Amino acid sequence: VHPQTTEEREKQQQLEHPRAPLASLRRVARKMEAQQVGSLTKKGSEKGRYEFRHKGELIYEWEQTLEEVNIYVKPPPVTADMIDCVIPPRRVRLGIRGTPPFLDEETGGAVVKDESYWTLSDGEIVVFLQKMRKGETWEAALRGRGEVDPITKQEIQKEMMLERFQEENPGFDFRGASFNGSVPDPRTFMDGVKYT
Questions:
Q1: Residue 37 — φ and ψ, nearest 5°?
Q2: CA angle 151, 152, 155 (to 5 degrees)
Q3: Across the strands, what pairs with 8?
Q4: β-pair partners for 126
Q5: pLDDT value at position 80?
Q6: Distance CA 184, CA 89 (A)
Q7: Handedness of CA 116, 41, 22, 1 (dihedral sign)
Q8: CB–CB of 35/162 below 8 Å?
């Protein structure tokens, strides 16, 4: 008789106990929590930024606030007049003039075209996307490219809720505030976000 592998034990448990897959999922979740505290989404080089990598290579970092999503790209040495960046209401195209774009993707939400722009500063391209719907939580800067996991989404919503509370109550300090349970949607919580 040979000892059972973990996979064999789980199959046997599934046959004997119909709720076994749930127990197995819980074990995997506990194992993941033990390996990594907090979110599974890779943090970027600065606080609040998240990474999108493809085949191990950093493509861009991004962050969001109540009103905007910012994308950070480290290009090869270029000057601003070499950059080709177009921002229609639901897309970003970014590259070097005369070559195929480096990014040509649908955004994580609708943007205000006339209030979105890009800059090149300290060797980094920053694309500022003004959200069409203030307070909307984007799961990714570019649709289908590095969506955040549920834990990270909650972290982002918490930061945006605190930003909203600070904006609506300027005399108070919400830096140490916390939420019990899941964080409400900053766009819809208590009659929705106020536009200023």
A1: -80, 135
A2: 95
A3: none
A4: 72, 119
A5: 94
A6: 27
A7: positive
A8: no
The amino acid present at 161, given as its one-letter code, is: M
Q: What would the pLDDT profile of 127-150 be if each residue is shown by its tens digit? A: 999 999 999 999 999 998 878 888
Q: For residue 132, what pLDDT is reported?
A: 94
48-73: per-residue pLDDT in tens? 889 898 888 899 999 999 999 999 99
- Pick out the chain residues at pLDDT < 50: 17-39
The residues near 117 (Cβ < 8 Å, ≥ 6 apart) are: 87, 127, 128
pLDDT at 67: 94
pTM above 0.70, yes or no: yes
Structure tokens at 99: 């070559």
SS3 letters across the chain: CCCCCHHHHHHHHHHHCCCHHHHHHHHHHHHHHHHCCCCCCCECCCCCCEEEEECCEEEEEEEECCCEEEEEECCCCCCHHHEEEECCCCEEEEEECCCCCCEEEEECCCECHHHCEEEEECCEEEEEEEECCCCCCCCCCECCECCCCHHHHHHHHHHHHHHHHHHHCCCCCCCCCCCCCCCCCCCCCCCCCCCC
Q: Alpha carbon of 162 to those of 34, 95, 138, 167, 182: distances in Å? A: 28, 35, 17, 8, 14
Q: Which pLDDT score, from 0 to 100, does residue 20 have?
A: 42
